[in-house]
Amino acid sequence: MSGCPYHQTREEFKPFDLTNPFPFYKQAREEEPVFFSEELGYYVVTRYEDIKAVFSNWKTYTSENAQSPFKPIAPKAKALMEAHGMIGLSGLSGRIPPDHTRIRRIVSMAFNVSRFKKLEPRIRELAINMIGQFQADGHAEMVRQLAYDLPAFVIFMLLGVPNEDVQQVKSWAESRLLMTWGDLTEDEQLVHAENMIKYWNYCQNLVKLRHENPTDDLPGDLVRLQAEGHEISDREIAAMCYSQLFAGHETTTSLIGNAIRELLLKRESWEAICANPALIPNAIEEVLRYSPSIVSWRRRALEDSTIGGVHIPAGSNLLLVMGSANRDEAQFEQGETFDIERTNAKEHLSFGYGIHFCLGSPLAKLESKIVLEELTRLIPNLRIKPDQVFKFAPNTSFRAPVAVEVEWE
User: Fold this and answer.
1) Which family is annotated (predicted)?
2) Preceding peptide of 98 cis, ω within 30°
């Protein structure tokens, strides 16, 4: 490979370092938009048109590997998880039709915009109360004091998880992120596997409790639909809870953290939404495009195919880098520029595309909109604390600042 003009590009690919991957993404789009990563054993796809085409073709590119660990599960951790029925567990993102179609149709009957809208007053009250706890301090760390807990409380409202369990479930969810998308030692895997088992048992118990005492929440609705004759098992309901307790808050925490950081770093954008809150919804779309919570997702080729002129053998794993696609100049003019008035910002691929498009996207955007509306109203003179270094958790897919220090007078 030393004579290959793209050898340097491949060598610069650091899949677990998301501090600032965007210059590499740009180089890859221009020089080798589809390449093979020896470290991951995946073909990496970086252009918008190619990624959208893969998302659209679920028959050729299955999502069954979407939540498989990048690194092989160590034997002891795997045996432990198998003993508790956790191998092969998935909500919707890792399923394919017909199971995906059947379960998504039933879940959509309960997990929908009308239910989200009912929560809006409670979300706003929660945001105001949380901001009120630090409003007089003149400084705050926005991830720990706002972005981390608010989405958890919201998704737990939806799923009927009591407030006193929030911190414990958040901790279990972090273990799932690291186990699936991180780069762990065998000993670390065993610790996180034990946490994931506790998390899975908790979700199964949520379903059991709904059979004993019906409730007005997502698992309660799914148990009711099951009783009415809709084809969904207790294990599938528990798997949906397992998935949503993670995806429903981890990514929204990331979106809120990214939004606050990007808007404050681009001071004119923050001042614009303070002056005109009607700009906030499109500003959120631009944050999702420019600095997405999930920068990559996965597929597996079921048959020989071609992507971007590159032959993809059957059985190959694909890493679809939406964080690159979202800045592709072929789709977004001046894609490397942050512009909250961009007219086609909504065309980003941060929530996927096709049959697996994220069901919870309206809720994530609603929560972020409310947080920005209340922050700009209550603390309009918010600014980034100078000279801070932003850190990002090492993994392949979930990109958000670990902390965002702010101050005001």
Assistant:
1) Belongs to the cytochrome P450 family.
2) yes
Strand partners, 312: 305
Residue 404 CA: distances (Å) to CA of 195, 258, 266, 323, 383: 27, 9, 14, 21, 10
* Inside any domain, residue 389: no
Q: Is 171 left (phi over 0), alpha (psi -120 to 50) or beta?
A: alpha
Q: In the chain, how many domains are there?
A: 1
> Is residue 179 assigned to a domain?
yes
The encoded tokens of residue 186 equal 């065998």
Residue at token pair 């004091």: 145
Segment 227-286, tens digit of pLDDT:
999 999 999 999 888 888 777 777 899 999 999 999 999 999 999 999 999 999 999 999
Domain span at 80: 7-379
pLDDT in tens, 192-206: 999 989 989 999 999
User: Domain with 137 in it: what CATH number?
Assistant: 1.10.630.10
In sequence order, which ranges of 12-165 are alpha helices (DSSP H)? Answer: 22-31, 48-56, 75-83, 99-110, 113-132, 142, 150-159
pLDDT at 118: 85
**Tokens for 135?**
């409003």
407 domain residue, yes or no: no
How many other β-carbons are positioned within 10 Å of the β-carbon of residue 320?
28
Which string of DSSP letters, residue by residue, matches 178-219? HHHHS---HHHHHHHHHHHHHHHHHHHHHHHHHHHS--SSHH
DSSP 3-state of 51 = helix
Long-range contacts of 122-127 (CB under 8 A, 24+ apart): 122/154, 122/157, 123/150, 123/154, 123/366, 123/367, 123/370, 124/370, 124/374, 126/150, 126/153, 126/154, 127/370, 127/371, 127/374
β-sheet bridge partners, residue 35: 44
Beta bridge partners of 44: 35, 319
Q: 402, 266, 294, 288: which is closest to 346 by C-alpha?
A: 288
> 319 by DSSP, 3-state: which?
strand
Nearest Cα to 350, choosing from 282, 296, 396? 296
